[in-house]
Amino acid sequence: MLLVAGTTSDAGKSVLTAGICRWLARQGVKVAPFKAQNMSLNSMVTADGAEIGRAQAMQAAAARVEPTAHMNPVLLKPGSDRRSQVVVLGRPIAEVDAMGYAEHKRRLREVVLASLAELRARYDVVICEGAGSPAEINLRAGDLANMGLARAAGSPDGPGMPVIVVGDIDRGGVFAALYGTVGLLEPEDQRLIAGFVINKFRGAPELLAPGLAQITALTGRPVYGVLPWLGGLWLDVEDSLALDARPPSRPAATGETLRVAVARLPRISNFTDLDALSAEPGVTVRFATMPGELADADLVVLPGSRATVSDLAWLHEQGLAAEVVRRARAGRPVLGICGGYQMLAHEILDDIESMAGPVAGLGLLPVRVEFAPDKTLRRPSGTAYGEPVHAYEIHHGMAAVEGGEPFLDGCRVGAVWGTTWHGALENDGFRRAFLADVARTAGRDFTPAPDTDFAALREAQLDALGDLVERHLDTDALWRLIETGAPPDLPIVPPGGAGS
Fold it and tell me: Where are the transmembrane segments (predicted)?
């Protein structure tokens, strides 16, 4: 086992975990990813109908195994700044605030350790991803995902799971972050921190070398490698911190560019739905928070939301709602996905998520939405435009369609489409047919590329991560950590001085 921790959120834990999984899978090792507790609005449905973090599904793909609920036994889905839905082994069990969540911790610790034991019994190696930073000392007492997990994963007489800490040098201050992360930990935790990885380096390696030597001298821990900045890298991520690093636009082979604007909702969820559009040559995707940013768009997308009613209110406050309605009534294309589809309805009855009761939607589709206590989690299949579509559903809102043309499980009226199906745009034939229809409706001279293979593009990204690990990390040292654990007698780093 090995735990990949980070100096901060979005330091590179998810991608490094995926890269190590792909590197090991290439060696013929049966490997699985694991994240004990994930806070994310980007989730996925497994084959048996369990909801897990989308990043863990991506890491399972890197490991070339089918994702399961055991790979992410606890998922927290924030609905506001203070409350989250708690998903355990793929099923929601409660809506809690931070203090209420503490009451669940003891039982959840048992669930986490049981899931890890299940994976260890089924796989040769388990690569664990931490959450946030292990140095969040205000949360250490109840920690499930970082050093608490590393300590608990050892045998009764053993030291626990070895940990490497990854830091993002592109943010600046990486050496202070690495040193401070170790220095803030209690001695028993420090003894499991085996070394460091530096992520997103661009520049002359010789300028970095003195810093690598000094951080090793100060902490008594090696740097296992420096991962270079890799432009154009995109993967399924956990949260909106990475929204601005989505797939780059690819130039069109012929004709015009198709411009897509996506409402950047405060509680946006499953925004990976848009990755397949970004990967299509000639399609540009940008996120919008103001009406003017929709002005030249050929397609406006209302994406998924963890807080449909609250995010609909935000659309009105920002002036985006009025602009979306104006565009739709002028025959300009609008697509709503899951929560965004619900916003397009005539009426939303929500006594579950927001407790707001009946709320007027945008009135663009003949649909009435009522929130149900039980969450729908499934992987449906169907056809549209004569093309097969495989997707997944994650929602409490149940949409009753009262008219319009059928569109997947939803409907279409004029230039407005709506569906609860996530991932539909990853189906190449359907995506091309839909974009061609959008282009015709928008009056654009745009023809989708006939050979874009989104699954192959995603697989190439995972291979690129495996290449980074293989070429730039000390893989022999990583393998020794996995086999034998952290080196004994690692020095204790005081918060304010050199290692002893």
Answer: none
Residue 494 belongs to some domain of the structure: no
Active-site residues: which are they? 338, 422
Phi, psi (rounded to 5 degrees) for 275: -60, -40
Considering the domain architecture, whether residues 390 and 338 belong to the same structural domain is answered as yes
Q: What angle do CA 75, 57, 244 make, to 5 degrees?
A: 85
Within a domain: 242: no
CATH number of the domain at 416, please. 3.40.50.880
Rounded Cα gap, residues 74 and 112, in angstroms: 7
The CA distance from 328 to 300, in Å, is: 9
Residue 48: its pLDDT value, please?
94
CA distance 20 to 2: 10
Query: Do residues 413 and 365 touch, judged by C-beta distance below 8 A?
Result: yes
Cα 358 to chain centroid distance, Å, stands at 31
Structure tokens, 346? 């005539």
- Whether residues 220 and 283 fall in one domain: no
We report the CATH number of the domain holding residue 136 as: 3.40.50.300
Contact 279, 456 (CB under 8 A): no
281 & 427 share domain: yes
The structural domain count of the chain equals 2
What is this structure's pTM? 0.93
CA–CA gap between residue 208 and residue 496 (Å, rounded): 23
pLDDT, one tens digit per residue, over 274-329 is: 999 999 999 999 999 999 999 999 999 999 999 999 999 999 999 999 999 999 99
Domain that includes residue 467, residue range: 2-235+459-484
Q: What's the rounded mean pLDDT across residues 60-76?
A: 97
Task: Output the six-digit token pair for 42.
Answer: 């980007």
Max alpha carbon distance in the chain (Å)? 73
- Please tell me the distance from the alpha carbon of residue 455 to that of residue 421, in angstroms, as a whole number: 18
